[in-house]
Amino acid sequence: MKPDNLKYFSIAILIALAGLEQSCESDARTSTRIPPVIKKGKEQWQKDALLSLTELINRGIDSDVNYFKRARIYFEREQYAEALDDINESIYEQDNVSEYFLLRGKINRELGNIDNALEDAQRAEALQQSSPELYVLLADILQAKNRFGEAAGYLNQALRMAPYDGSAYYVKGMLQAKQGDSLASLSSLNYAMNVNPRLLRAYEQGTIINLKLKNTAEALAINEKALNRFPERASLFYGRGEILNALAQPDTALIFYQKALAIQPDYDEALNALATVAMQQRAYPAAIPALKKLLRKKPQSKELNNMLGYAYEKSGELDLAKTYYTTSLTIAPGDQDARYGMYRIRKIESEGLYPSYYPEENTRDGYKLLDTSRVKINIIQPRGTTNIRVDSSRKAKIE
After folding, report:
1. Which PROSITE patterns does the protein's record reference (predicted)?
2. For residue 324, what is the DSSP state?
3. Beta bridge partners of 367
4. What is the pTM for the complete model shown?
5. Following DSSP, what letter does each residue of 222-261 receive, concatenated?
6. Other C-beta atoms lying within 10 Å of the C-beta of residue 222
7. Could you tell me the residue ranges of all domains in the chain?
8. Longest dimension (CA), the chain
C-alpha cells in the first residue's frame, strides 16, 4: 500500500474508533447513571417499609409516629396482634393523638374486643376526630352491642360524608338484618363485598343470612369467593361445613370442620358442630377429641359428660364411659341419660357370668328345642260325652 493511502486508512480507523467509544460512553451513561425504575408490588413495599420503620424505632427516632406507621401496616396485613402491640407503644408515648386511638379501636374490633374498641373510638371522638372512618367504626361497634338507635345515628353521619363507603354498607346490612329485613340486608352486604372485597365480615354474614333463608346455592357461591380471597380463615371453612350439612352432606361437612380446627384449634362453634355431626354419623372416634376440648372449657356440663360417655361406650371403652357417666350423675344425680348408660354397661359386663338356660347345641335353625328331661308332660285325656234327659214338663228335647 502507498504511504498516502496508508495515511488515509489510519485516519479512517481512528475516526471509527472515536465514534465507537462515544457510543459506548452513551450506553454506559444510560445503563449506570440512570438505572431503570423497578416498580414494587404492595407486599414487597410493605416488607421494605417494615424493615425501615423497625430500624428507625431501634434508633429511637420519632418512636410514637413510627410505631403508629408500623401498626398500620400490620393492620393492613391482618397481623392484628403485632399491630396492637405497636399502637399500644404509640399511645404510651403520646396519649392525646386521635388517630392512634382510632387505629387501636379498629384493631380491637377485628380482635373481637368490643368494649375496648368502643372505649378507643369514643376517646378518638373526644379528641376532635370527625372522620367517616370513625363514624363507621362507632356504628359497627354499637350495632354489635345491639344499640341500634345510636348505631343508626353514626351510620347516617358516615354516609353523608362518604356515601359509597363499603364498610358503611356492611353496617347498614347488619342493622337491616337485625331489624328483620333480610332481603335489604343481603343487598347492602353484596354492595359492601363488591366495593371492599377485603371486608371479611360481609362474606361471613352474607353466608349466614342466605343459609337462614335456605338459599344454599347463594351461600355456597359467597363462601367460595371468600375462601379464594382468605384461604387461611377458620370461620370460612366452618361456614362451608354448615352449608354442606344443610345440603345433607355430613361426611364432607366433617372434613371442613376439621380444616377449621386445624387453623384455629379452640374454635368453639366448629368443635360443637364436629362433635354433633360425628355423633349423628356414628363416627365416635372423630367426636371424642372435640368433646374433650369442649369439656375442658365446661367441666360441669352433664350433656358433654354424657356425650363422651356414650362415645366411649360405643367405641368399646367401657371403663372410660363409666367415668364420664359417673361424673354426670355427680353433677345431676337424677339424670336419666347417665343412668341408662350405666345400666347398658352393667348389662354388657354381666353377659357370660351366667350360662344360658338353653345350651347352644339344643338349638336348630335359630329355634330352641324343648328339654323333655326337665319338663313334665301330662297326656291330654279325651273329652267325655254328656246325655241330657228330656224335660218332661216342657215336652222338649234338648240336644
Report:
1. TPR
2. H
3. 364
4. 0.71
5. HHHHHHHH-TT-HHHHHHHHHHHHHTT-HHHHHHHHHHHH
6. 27
7. 44-129, 298-351
8. 187
